[in-house]
């Protein structure tokens, strides 16, 4: 913090951040759903779920894997896969600069983190999307990391769990992004044929190319409460059909009702539920 | 303005209308009129050549969407014999945005699946302008599985503005339907040849586009999001669609360079709609040649090659 920022009252500083909560950053956080001011340490203990209204807030990929995997014996996978700007894509900004910006903002080099570890003692491979990185969009790195993680699962006969949070395919990598849909689906099909379980957990939000590939190919598809998931975004659908969408459209409860997912899992139950499911799928004794 | 010509083709349209006028008066049988017509024809050809030698990506998008461009059914009529259309997904309905059936090409039985936009206004409506719903993709999936059982090679024709974005599509699981096709096509034990004949838009195109061979017609386009959609997100206006088309690299030349498209089939001068018979002949010739080649490969080798090709998408270098 510079000396100037130090002497400017904190209220003014926070007001400059457009679109963010009015509660001063730091100890307090405002729930976007019920507007309650929440004490951060308590919120974190509650896994970033609002204790007042049960709203499941978005969390980063690393935190997601941190609260999911056992503490011991984690190993990050496919870290040598790094972004390439094959098309030299440029719009109002260069894609290269957008990548650098996202890397600085999130501390991640792209939008997927993959790890091998254990869940209550069972070996698993787990991957999580980083929504804060370019809207969690899938380009080459996301597709390739997912695929390599799935290959580790396949070769070792251990289950794969994916926590998705994404706007879909990444425009700036154009058709390379589209082809990641085919690539990830192909490796999942090999897992399916080999009888290696894949559980897909959709977290708010999951759209477009990721929804129309890996996210809906789970042996078991699940979602967090209130997560929005679908192929086309609500705005596009409204523009196409020229009518308002029904309440709760594309939320996990809607997906459950229409048979797209097997279950809704609250964040606090994630470890228990997935461990229970996976132990049965792998035929482990009770 | 002549509606048979696109905006950037208007200089050609003007010449063509002059030729037509002259033809009307040529009954007078004056030699110099005949000469004049020949001269104008040559000029028109030269002009078309020069315009088409240097199409921008956005102009190519417009040719790919030309209202008179041949659609799947136009190719099916010209390329195949013994065409029997098959209907329905056996679960919900028959989606006319996707046509499917068994036919013969050069005597050999094949499974044909194509996206169809429809020609007349009423046909466009009944085919939902070529925007399939889940039942369309599930019909395609049923055909793929049948093709595997009866050892029929699969030929697909891609031409869609995208999978239909609507409430019913979402309710019936459009994402799952597309995803399922990608998964199954990746390991279907029969050769698959996919050809983009017009507009290949995003997941709705890819859902019948995974195979051993990907062809594009010279002026067809293939993109992850429509140039309008991309422009809307980045520039907040569809007016910038030409820039988006440029940035995304939507044409076969770029996609061949990226190793995604295998072959580009040249179009008649001025686009496929100028001579659908010739275009269909070229597509047929290519398909027969590719079928012959793929039929010689042992199926396990073919599947491994298909898989490795999918795995390589986007690999640097």
TrEMBL record, chain A:
Keywords: ATP-binding, Cytoplasm, Fatty acid biosynthesis, Fatty acid metabolism, Lipid biosynthesis, Lipid metabolism, Metal-binding, Nucleotide-binding, Transferase, Zinc, Zinc-finger. The keyword Glycosyltransferase does not apply. Signal peptide: none annotated. Pathway: Lipid metabolism; malonyl-CoA biosynthesis; malonyl-CoA from acetyl-CoA: step 1/1. Its cofactor is Zn(2+). Its EC number is 2.1.3.15. Binds 1 zinc ion per subunit. A zinc finger (C4-type) spans 31-53. It is an enzyme of class 2 (transferase). Pfam families: Carboxyl_trans (PF01039), Zn_ribbon_ACC (PF17848). Coiled coil: none annotated. Residues 27-286 form the CoA carboxyltransferase N-terminal domain. InterPro entries: AcCoA_carboxyl_beta, Acetyl_CoA_COase_Trfase_b_su, ClpP/crotonase-like_dom_sf, COA_CT_N, Znf-ACC. Zn(2+) binds at residues 31, 34, 50, 53. It catalyses: N(6)-carboxybiotinyl-L-lysyl-[protein] + acetyl-CoA = N(6)-biotinyl-L-lysyl-[protein] + malonyl-CoA. It is found in: Cytoplasm. Component of the acetyl coenzyme A carboxylase (ACC) complex. Biotin carboxylase (BC) catalyzes the carboxylation of biotin on its carrier protein (BCCP) and then the CO(2) group is transferred by the transcarboxylase to acetyl-CoA to form malonyl-CoA. Acetyl-CoA carboxylase is a heterohexamer composed of biotin carboxyl carrier protein (AccB), biotin carboxylase (AccC) and two subunits each of ACCase subunit alpha (AccA) and ACCase subunit beta (AccD). HAMAP family: AcetylCoA_CT_beta (MF_01395). Belongs to the AccD/PCCB family. This is Acetyl-coenzyme A carboxylase carboxyl transferase subunit beta. It comes from Biformimicrobium ophioploci. The lineage of its organism: Bacteria, Pseudomonadati, Pseudomonadota, Gammaproteobacteria, Cellvibrionales.
UniProtKB/TrEMBL annotation, chain B:
Keywords: ATP-binding, Cytoplasm, Fatty acid biosynthesis, Fatty acid metabolism, Lipid biosynthesis, Lipid metabolism, Nucleotide-binding, Transferase. Its main location: cytoplasm. SUPFAM superfamilies: ClpP/crotonase. Pfam families: ACCA. Its EC number is 2.1.3.15. Component of the acetyl coenzyme A carboxylase (ACC) complex. First, biotin carboxylase catalyzes the carboxylation of biotin on its carrier protein (BCCP) and then the CO(2) group is transferred by the carboxyltransferase to acetyl-CoA to form malonyl-CoA. Acetyl-CoA carboxylase is a heterohexamer composed of biotin carboxyl carrier protein (AccB), biotin carboxylase (AccC) and two subunits each of ACCase subunit alpha (AccA) and ACCase subunit beta (AccD). This is Acetyl-coenzyme A carboxylase carboxyl transferase subunit alpha.
């Amino acid at each position: 913090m510079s000396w100037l920022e130090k002497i400017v009252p904190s209220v003014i500083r926070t007001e400059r951040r457009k679109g963010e909560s009015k509660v001063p950053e730091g100890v307090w956080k405002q729930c976007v759903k019920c507007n309650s001011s929440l004490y951060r340490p308590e919120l974190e203990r509650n896994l970033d779920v609002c204790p007042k209204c049960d709203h499941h807030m978005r969390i980063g990929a690393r935190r997601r894997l941190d609260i999911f995997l056992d503490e011991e014996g984690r190993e990050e996978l496919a870290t040598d896969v790094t972004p390439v700007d094959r098309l030299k894509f440029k719009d109002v900004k260069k894609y290269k600069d957008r990548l650098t910006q996202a890397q600085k903002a999130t501390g991640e080099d792209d939008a997927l983190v993959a790890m091998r570890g254990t869940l209550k003692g069972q070996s698993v491979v787990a991957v999580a999307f980083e929504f804060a990185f370019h809207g969690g969009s899938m380009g080459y790195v996301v597709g390739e990391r997912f695929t390599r993680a799935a290959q580790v699962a396949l070769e070792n006969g251990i289950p794969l769990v994916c926590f998705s949070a994404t706007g879909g395919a990444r425009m700036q990598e154009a058709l390379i992004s589209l082809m990641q849909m085919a690539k990830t689906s192909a490796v999942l099909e090999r897992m399916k044929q080999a009888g290696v379980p894949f559980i897909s957990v959709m977290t708010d939000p999951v759209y477009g190319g990721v929804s129309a590939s890996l996210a809906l190919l789970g042996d078991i598809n699940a979602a967090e409460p209130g997560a929005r998931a679908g192929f086309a975004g609500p705005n596009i659908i409204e523009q196409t059909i020229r009518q308002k969408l029904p309440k709760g459209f594309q939320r996990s409860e809607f997906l459950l009702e229409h048979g797209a997912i097997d279950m809704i899992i609250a964040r606090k139950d994630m470890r228990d539920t997935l461990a229970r499911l996976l132990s049965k799928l792998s035929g482990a004794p009770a | 303005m002549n509606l048979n010509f696109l905006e950037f083709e208007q200089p050609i349209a003007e010449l063509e209308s002059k030729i037509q006028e002259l033809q009307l008066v040529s009954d007078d049988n004056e030699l110099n009129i005949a000469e004049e017509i020949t001269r104008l024809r040559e000029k028109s050809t030269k002009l078309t050549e020069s315009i088409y030698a240097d199409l921008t990506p956005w102009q190519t998008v417009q040719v790919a969407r030309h209202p008179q461009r041949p659609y799947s059914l136009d190719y099916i009529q010209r390329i195949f014999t013994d065409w029997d259309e098959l209907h329905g997904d056996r679960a919900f309905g028959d989606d006319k945005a996707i046509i499917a059936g068994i036919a013969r090409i050069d005597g050999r039985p094949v499974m044909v699946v194509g996206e169809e936009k429809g020609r007349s206004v009423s046909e466009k409506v009944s085919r939902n302008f070529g925007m399939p719903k889940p039942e369309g993709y599930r019909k395609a999936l049923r055909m793929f599985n049948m093709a595997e059982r009866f050892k029929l090679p699969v030929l697909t024709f891609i031409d869609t503005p995208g999978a239909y974005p609507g409430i019913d599509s979402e309710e019936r699981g459009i994402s799952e339907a597309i995803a399922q096709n990608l998964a199954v096509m990746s390991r279907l034990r029969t050769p698959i040849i996919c050809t983009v004949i017009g507009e290949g838009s995003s997941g709705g195109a890819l859902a019948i586009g995974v195979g051993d061979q990907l062809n594009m017609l010279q002026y067809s386009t293939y993109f992850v999001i429509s140039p309008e959609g991309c422009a809307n997100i980045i520039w907040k206006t569809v007016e910038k669609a030409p820039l988006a088309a440029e940035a995304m690299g939507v044409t076969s030349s770029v996609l061949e360079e990226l190793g995604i498209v295998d072959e580009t089939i040249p179009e008649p001068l001025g686009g496929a709609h100028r001579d659908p018979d010739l275009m269909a002949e070229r597509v047929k010739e290519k398909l027969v040649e590719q079928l012959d080649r793929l039929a010689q490969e042992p199926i396990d080798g073919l599947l491994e090659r298909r898989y490795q090709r999918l795995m390589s998408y986007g690999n640097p270098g």
